[in-house]
Amino acid sequence: MSKFVRQIETVQQRTQKLSESASLEPSLQSDLLVQAFEELQIALEELKVAEEELREQNEQLVCAHHLIEQERQRYLDLFNFAPDCYLVTDIDGKILEANCAAAKLFQVPQNYLKNKVLINFVPEQYRRSFRTQLTKLRQIDHLQEWEIQLQKRDGNYFDAAISVTTVNIASSSFKWRWLVRDITARKQAEAQIRTIESENSYLQETARLKSQFMAMVSHELRTPMHAILGFAQLLMRQPYHLLSPQLKNMVERIICNAKNLLTLIEDILDFSTLEAGRLDLKLQEFNLAELVQAVTEELSSLTLQKNLSLNFQVELPNPLITNDRNRLRQILVNIISNAIKFTYTGSVSVEVQALPENRIAMIVRDTGIGIAKADLQNIFQEFQQVNQSFNRRHGGTGLGLAIVDKLVRLMQGSISVESQLGDGSTFRVEIPVRVLRQ
Ligand code: ADP
Fold it and tell me: In this predicted structure, what is the pLDDT of residue 172?
């Protein structure tokens, strides 16, 4: 632009000079006319160039203006249609701009917000703290996630998280840009989590008390049960003439039922102690091959009654392991006697193998009734019996596998089962060769 002004000035100066010379010396007028004509032509050309440049500059200016307008519109759209509520206020909190989300959040028409003070949307009881924050904001120039309750036009409160930034810091009339988010849902979820957590700890405490109570009750029941069983067994040993066949039959029933009850009490006691995390393994070194042999021999009488074959195979380079012998025995007895209980024809086999990383697998296979896929995931839960009517006939409490599962975990091991209804089951227990004290 200044170049163009300079060019006009030059033409003006030349014209000025020309007219001065013409007025001073009239004799030179024809020469001057020619000179003036040339000067005029040069000036015209220069003016043309200047005009061209001016036009070009004008076009650039229009283009730049257009771009600025586009950018402004883009910013306005972004501001207006942002999913979050944005407001721009002066430093007294008077709203200068508000987007659509703001209008929606406060449930007012968008133009209603303009020139209102933001404090209007703060409930009475929070206004003091709001003012204090405004004063603070003047010094700290931004604020992150300030949580406060705000009020919609219909009077309903909502939890809001506010972030404020100062804009136009350089100018004297700086403003604040507010991002206001409705966090009611988050607050409700947090409150729900707190309730669930407190309920959870209440339930945990109840479960602990329940286990403690069960352990105590079953412990107290065990002692008199042992006495009943002991005395009934003493009665059985009485000379034949003192005990009629009828009485003998009754005593046999007492013994049988007392044994069942004692097993149940022992199971409940074990389960409660395990659940309360109070069972300690008594670790010792022993021969696993010998244990497996002893257990299978002990249970072979059950297979004989049902005409099943029971065999075992231990393939360990070194059968010496460190574990709680009685508890491992309990696991084996449980799984093998289940296999016998749920098998009518065929066989039950026990296999012990060495695994990598100093672990061993104990596998019990049967050709019994099998377990439906849907029931497989539940059988390690306490009191879970797949076929209720079958179990009523064959007894059992549904605690056996739950105890086994907890014991195996305590031994830093795992238990799994593969089965198909009508096609037998395979239980697999994996434990470390040496269980470590915890
Ligand atoms: P229970 O005292 O009833 O045997 P368990 O916890 O030992 O309780 O077993 C839970 C349920 O799992 C059993 O009632 C039975 O339905 C099923 N189950 C366990 N072992 C076998 C198996 N070898 N074959 C088929 N079903 C089995």
Answer: 64
From ligand 1's centre to the CA of 385, what distance in Å? 6
Ligand 1 centroid – CA 237 distance (Å): 35
Distance (angstroms) between ligand 1 centre and the Cα of 338 equals 6
Pocket-forming residues, ligand 1, beta carbon under 6 Å: 338-339, 342, 366, 368-371, 379, 384-387, 391, 396-402, 425
Read off the pLDDT of residues 261-304 as tens digits, 9 standing for 90 and up: 888 888 888 888 888 788 889 999 999 999 999 999 999 988 98
* One-letter-per-residue 3-state SS of 1-64: CHHHHHHHHHHHHHHHHHHHHHHHCHHHHHHHHHHHHHHHHHHHHHHHHHHHHHHHHHHHHHHH
